[in-house]
Structure formats: C-alpha cells, structure tokens
Design goal:
Elements: H1 2-7, H2 9-26, H3 29-35, H4 39-42, H5 50-53, H6 61-83, H7 85-106, H8 119-132, E1 137-140, E2 143-148, H9 149-166, H10 173-190, H11 193-210
Helix pairs in contact: 2-6, 6-8, 7-8, 7-10, 8-10, 9-10
Length: 211
C-alpha cells in the first residue's frame, strides 16, 4: 500500500476518500441525502456542491466495487507513468464536475431525479489512459477476449450514447459519455503532445497492417 502512495499519491488519496465516504453513506441516510446530486436543486442554485460530492458516494457495494476496481486498474498507472501527479488530480476533479453538468441541464425540471457515483470521472481516467496506450489490450465485461483500447473506446461511446437515448437501466449514461470526452480533452490540454503521439501510434499501426 505504501508503494502505491509513493508512486501515485493523488490516486491513492482519491481511492481512500471515495471508499471511506461511500461506506459512511451506506449506513447514514442523512449523509447520503446531503451528498447525492439533485439536478432540480442544483439548477436553482441549491446544493451546488453535490456536483462534486455525488462522485464520492455509491448506490451499493457492487457499484462501489466495480468503480474502484476500474479505477485501480487504470488510475495508478496513469498518474505514476503517464500524466503526472497534479495533472491527474486536475483530470479527475474537473472531469467529475464536467461529466455531471449535462445531467444537471437535462434533468433540471425533474424533481425526483438523482445521480451518484464516480463513473464519470473513472470514464475520464480510462479515456486518458487510451490516449497514451490506444493499442493496449482491454476487455469488455463478461467477454474474455482482448480488444485494442481504441476499439473499446469507440464501442463505449457508441453504447453510452445509445443507452442514454433509450434510457437503458437505472444508470447515468450521460455522465459516462461526457466523462470520457472530458478525459480526452483535458489530457490534450495538460499534455499537448499526447494528441500527436496518439495519432502517430495509430498511423504506424495502420501502415504496418497495410504492409
């Protein structure tokens, strides 16, 4: 654990805080209610802080475990070896906010709509990783066949868009979609050469396949 903190201190702190607050909220309904995102209220200038705090609570154990496992697989490597410490903090927190803003606009008149979870920010982490490793192997859930990260990314965005329009499941697909886009944009802003390297890597792979 100490090694993780030394190599990726920001990701370590975010991981620990998210788990701790989520666990507290599981057993404290008052805290849960105060931290969850309510677009109706936020759009009217109330409880604006929930745009951030909602990303540190989860609906249940499965929701928490899935998000934190995904975070673990990508975030520590991204911070330590690709993007840097303060850059990772900016990426995560800004994406957390940006991923929720479309939800606030979309559901501003829905009194009963609620949203929570770190999925938007975690999507940003995944897509930032893809910017640096577009050809690395990634896996779809329940399908143990490796696919290139760039293909995974495209499929992910297509599915999120489709699922959002169809209202599939009790999931905020918009947060996933806009979190992913935020991850790409913020990575390019923070590490400008990442866009060039991304294109060059794909170009070289395409040329090798043609020859």
């Amino acid at each position: 654990m100490e090694q993780y903190f030394i190599q990726a201190p920001v990701a370590s702190v975010i991981f620990a805080i998210t788990v701790a607050i989520s666990l507290f909220a599981f057993y404290n309904d008052n805290l849960y209610t105060r931290l969850i995102l309510q677009p109706y209220n936020v759009s009217r200038g109330k409880y604006v802080y929930t745009v951030v705090t909602s990303g540190f609570i989860h609906a249940d154990w499965m929701h928490l475990i899935f998000n934190m496992l995904t975070f673990y697989f990508f975030a520590f490597n991204l911070e330590a070896n690709m993007i840097g410490h303060w850059q990772f903090g900016v990426l995560y927190m800004v994406s957390l906010i940006l991923s929720d803003l479309p939800t606030v606009v979309k559901h501003k008149n829905d009194l009963w709509y609620r949203s929570l979870g770190a999925s938007g920010a975690v999507s940003a982490v995944i897509f930032s990783y893809i910017m640096f490793q577009p050809l690395s192997d990634m896996y779809l859930m329940f399908l143990p066949i490796p696919i290139p990260a760039i293909v995974f990314g495209v499929l992910y965005l297509v599915y999120c868009s489709y699922a959002s329009k169809r209202g599939i499941g009790n999931i905020n697909h918009d947060a996933h979609f806009f979190g992913a886009l935020s991850g790409v944009i913020i990575t390019i802003i923070l590490i400008p050469h990442s866009a060039h390297d991304f294109i060059q890597t794909l170009s070289e792979k395409a040329q090798s396949l043609l020859h």
